[in-house]
Design goal:
With about 210 residues, this protein is an alpha/beta fold. It has eight helices and seven strands; from the N terminus they run H-H-H-E-E-E-H-E-H-E-H-E-H-E-H. It has a five-stranded mixed sheet with strand order 4-3-5-6-7. A two-stranded antiparallel ribbon has the order 1-2. The longest helix has 17 residues.
Length: about 210
């Protein structure tokens, strides 16, 4: 039961909306809303306008499915990137983590999640078929499976490996510098960078487990 006593229904509604954000409890939500109330009207309009514009105009790159302002993202449209090497990641945060290492100059393929039956997420809910299509079109020489080393991540890695096994593409995975159970977002840049540079053949990595 909600025991908070709000002096305003409008305030309560705003707090409820902020509290729907991940990692934001009611107390933090209230603090954020009260902060916004103290701001000039133009500042609040700029804040809400940025969110509305993001939702309306954000795109997904037609090549790698990364978030982008244009139909093709900056990475896929860059002539200095080797797009024949494709790093498969779960989401945009993983792309940002790998880019921060400055150790990878290839392209990406963003799955939009990982296989998780407990959460009702199967292979058809992810951008796996579009990855297979890129390989079958002959656009890719190497696929680096860079998913989190959790049970769900390993399951997704193996599923993709089975889908690509009959092709000529090289399939590799991050060196085990990324600890079991780690998500890329929380791995330090040096460790992640070394794991990419020292990546392993996927079949060899299975034998090590």
């Amino acid at each position: 039961m909600n025991t908070d006593h709000f002096p305003s229904r409008l305030l309560e509604q705003a707090v409820d909306e902020f509290a729907k954000l991940p990692g934001i409890g009611k107390k933090t939500a209230l603090r954020l809303v009260l902060h916004l109330l103290k701001q000039e009207h133009k500042e609040v309009e700029r804040f809400t306008g940025a969110i509305n514009t993001l939702k309306k105009e954000i795109k997904h790159c037609k090549v790698c499915r990364n978030i982008s302002d244009t139909d093709t993202c900056n990475i896929c449209s860059s002539p200095s990137r080797n797009l024949r090497i494709v790093c498969v990641v779960e989401n945009i945060k993983d792309v940002m983590s790998i880019e921060n290492t400055q150790q990878f100059n290839g392209g990406y393929h963003v799955l939009g999640g990982i296989i998780s039956p407990m959460d009702g997420i199967g292979p058809s809910d992810l951008e796996i078929n579009s990855l297979v299509e890129r390989v079958e079109r002959g656009e890719v020489d190497e696929v680096i499976l860079a998913l989190s080393t959790t049970m769900e991540g390993d399951t997704t890695n193996f599923f993709i490996y089975k889908k690509l096994k009959g092709t000529d593409v090289k399939i590799s995975t991050l060196a085990r510098g990324v600890s079991i159970g780690d998500e890329l977002e929380y791995t330090d840049e040096v460790t992640l960078g070394r794991s990419i540079v020292n990546r392993l053949n996927f079949e060899d990595s299975i034998k090590q487990l």
